[in-house]
Amino acid sequence: MAGPVLEKLKALNGYFVQTAHLMVGVPSYQNYLDHMKATHGDDKPVMNYEEFFRERQAARFGEGATRISRCC
Amino acid sequence: MSNISKHLMWLAIAIFGAFSLGVVALSQGESINALWIVTAAVSIYLIAYRFYALYIAKNVMQLDGNRPTPAVRLNDGLDYVPTHKNVLFGHHFAAIAGAGPLVGPVLAAQMGYLPGLLWLLVGVVLAGAVQDFMVLFISVRRNGRSLGDMVKEEMGVVPGVIAMFGTFMIITILLAVLALIVVKALAESPWGTFTVAATIPIALFMGIYSRYIRPGRIAEISLIGFILLMLAIIYGGQVAADPNLAPLFTFDGKQLTLMLLTYGVVASVLPVWLLLAPRDYLSTFLKIGTIVGLAIGILFVAPDLKMPAVTKFVDGTGPVWSGSLFPFLFITIACGAVSGFHALISSGTTPKLLENELHAPLIGYGGMLMESFVAVMALVAASIIEPGIYFAMNSPAALIGTTPESAAAAISQWGFLLTPEMLQETARNVGETTIISRTGGAPTLAVGMAQIFASAIGGPGMMAFWYHFAILFEALFILTAVDAGTRVGRFMLQDLMGTVVPALKDTQSIAGNLLASVLCVSAWGYFLYQGVSDPLGGINTLWPLFGISNQMLAAIALTLCTVVLFKMKRQQYAWVTLVPTTWLLICTLTAGMEKIFHSNPKIGFLSNAERFQAALAQDQILAPAKSIAQMHQIVFNNYLNAGLAALFMLVLLSVVFYGIKQCRIALKSTQPTTHEAVGNLKSA
Questions:
Q1: A47 touches chain B (CB under 8 A)
Q2: Could you tell me if B475 and B140 are in contact, meaning their C-beta atoms sit under 8 angstroms apart?
């Protein structure tokens, strides 16, 4: 009985964390890994989480980012 | 059978919404509960979403759930990521919610809660949400391209450049007015200043932590940062009470302006991980958390509104801002009903994350409904305060003086109950020495929020904590916007200057960066300083300019959407965008003309300039000027502001001109002429 409820709560928490991360410009790392594996196999270097995090941080605010990521 | 019960449910929502709105609109003279406003708003949002948004999706846009979105086609796990619709809704809402929808309704409350409420509801349904939704749609169909790029592509290079230039000017005015709000909230407030200053070392610590100590642990470091922030608020109370420490954090508006300018330059050349990113975590999570908390608080406390439904200031003689209901109420409400800035967000990161076209109504239209709801809550927070207190906080010193006695006398004369004791008690409750002329909207909102939060948690003893919590909440995301906005402005400027001196384009060059930063900060700093030294509070000048420019950007975005509909050969549906475009044109052009030419010097820039010039001719010095040089400065500032308003109008009119031209060309063509990206899978 507790199984499905627990599963649901876990999924809900997953969405919550994913939303919070995306709000500050960091998409799902697992999704990135899945994508790299599915599309590029082993022929493209895969960033570890730290590199991925830095890359996303620079993309959100860094040099040349003339896109506006927030509103007034 | 289930079909009929569904219809019955929508009919029930419609009747309930109409009834709530009737209670709100017709209960003249007696105070009503805030919950009526909330239920009226939510019913209208539900109906608008269910019927109008889905009508647009089905008929105007003809969304296709089988057509792969850019997130699917160009999926790279980084910029283009198919995202669950609820997750994306959170992301999009966090990006569009800001200070605008909170401040505008607070200022608009001087005419009573009803005019503001009606425009928030009508405006969002027919204009604001339509704009966000349409721009998201056309950007998704173009691989997530930006507004500027799309104007260039669909309307031509010249209107594209004009629109981008207009955007830069809007950013300048926006940063000035946001910074002014912070200055007004922190002036002569050691508690507030200490707390906001403490966010800098806290953010630096967070930056180093998430770069070197435990990289990328966003949740963990945000929690640590949040706890430190709360400690800073608590300790700030002790600082303010300490006769030795308090003077160290007590500054007037001009000193704070200089500090903010220095901060703007330094912050925008620091590495992003050190200050900007960690501050972004704090401000984003605090913003969303506080908005949710405010919604729960209003439902739980269910406060009564004390502001009348309509005040006598609908005639345009109000002290908070000058000008009559039309057009200035619509200009003042700004972001909560329709915001041009959202067009930049809807054509920013969101279109690259949309998993399926059919999610667009929820994200685009629904996200904006949520923003309007935030604005409605701000209006409620401003309206539960004693109206006398509201006017004492929002009227400039030039009208009500600086002592509790003078303020109470002036405001009682306007017909609002107020005693000096009420002012002193409120100031004491929120832990400030005075609350008179704390213009700019943020402190008023903070008092309203503190009342709601304190009724729910902690009682009157917690008022001061909640007041400074609310000030911090606003100051934090305004400072993030100032930092990020200066950066964006700097990059735009470096790009521009780079066409003349290529060396300046190099964003690795410290000299180039510093020069562009100083230029960008000077641009908004000039308007900020002008606002801070304005005896009418500065908001009176800058907020309408911001409102006009923001609504003009919305008109530009909607013009683009109209052109695209014509090019798609769907002109029979173009009224969906033409109606709000026309309204925004009428509003912004009228407001622009009045700001320039109105004979009342409180409204018209030229007549104010003439007033000072006439005095100069007779060697008189008018307040606030203290010297002939300052007199000349005021004359110059008024001409500058008039020029700026004229420039905004010119930008808008030229884009509309090109828009009409493109629509006529599209009408003559026998087939669609849009530049949509090809919808094949995996074609980059």
A1: no
A2: no
Interface of A with B in 48-67 (CB under 8 A): 49-50, 52-67
| SS3 of residue B250 by DSSP | coil
Burial (CB count within 10 angstroms: exposed 0-12, middle 13-18, buried 19+), residue B599: exposed
- Predicted pLDDT of residue A1: 54
**Could you read off the pLDDT of B517-556 as tens digits, one per residue?**
999 999 999 999 999 988 777 888 899 999 999 999 999 9
3-class DSSP state of B95: helix
Residue B78's nearest CA partner among A10, A16, A44 is: A44
Measure the CA–CA gap between B504 and A6, rounded to whole angstroms. 57
CA pair distance B354, B346, nearest whole angstrom: 11
Q: How far apart are CA B628 and CA B638, in angstroms?
A: 16
Q: What's the confidence (pLDDT) of residue B319?
A: 94
How close, in Å, is residue B376 to chain A by CA atoms?
17
Residue segments in chain B with a per-residue pLDDT below the cut of 50: 680-684
CB B479 within 8 A of CB B458: no
**From B77, B281, B341, residue closest to A35, measured CB to CB:** B77
Tell which residue, B96, B94, B68, has the closest CA to residue B82. B68
The SS3 call for residue B305 is coil
Residue pointed to by tokens 């180039």 = B512
Pick out chain A residues at pLDDT < 50: none
CA-based nearest residue to B178, from B272, B102, B244, B229: B102
- What number of other Cβ atoms are within 10 A of residue B242's Cβ? 13
- Measure the CA–CA gap between B198 and B344, rounded to whole angstroms: 32
Q: Does B273 touch chain A (CB under 8 A)?
A: yes
Compute the Cα dihedral for B320, B322, B326, B327 and give only its sign. negative
pLDDT attached to residue A2 = 62
How far is it, in rounded angstroms, from Cα B138 to Cα B126?
A: 18
**Beta-carbon count within 10 A of B684 CB:** 7
Write the CB contacts of B212 (distance below 8 Å, at least 6 apart in sequence). Answer: none
> How far apart are the C-alpha atoms of B358 and B64, rounded to whole Å?
7
ipTM of the complex: 0.93
Counting other chains too, the contacts that B313-319 makes at CB distance below 8 Å and 24 or more residues apart are B313/B110, B313/B111, B314/B111, B314/B112, B314/B115, B316/B603, B318/B110, B318/B111, B319/B110, B319/B391, B319/B394, B319/B395, B319/B396, B319/B399, B319/B400, B319/B414
CB within 8 A of B6, min separation 6: which ones? Answer: none
Task: Please give the Cα distance from B358 to B133 (Å, whole number).
Answer: 12
Per-residue model confidence (pLDDT) at position B684: 36
CB B350 within 8 A of CB B96: no
* Residues from chain B contacting residue A55 (CB–CB below 8 Å): 78
pLDDT value for B512: 81
pLDDT of the residue at B681: 45
In our burial notation (b when 16+ CB lie closer than 10 A, e otherwise), range B316-348 reads bebbbbbbbbebbbbbbbbbbbbbbbbbbbbbb
Q: How far apart are CA B332 and CA A37, in angstroms?
A: 51
Q: Which residue of A has its CA nearest to B285?
A: A20
DSSP code at position B678 = P
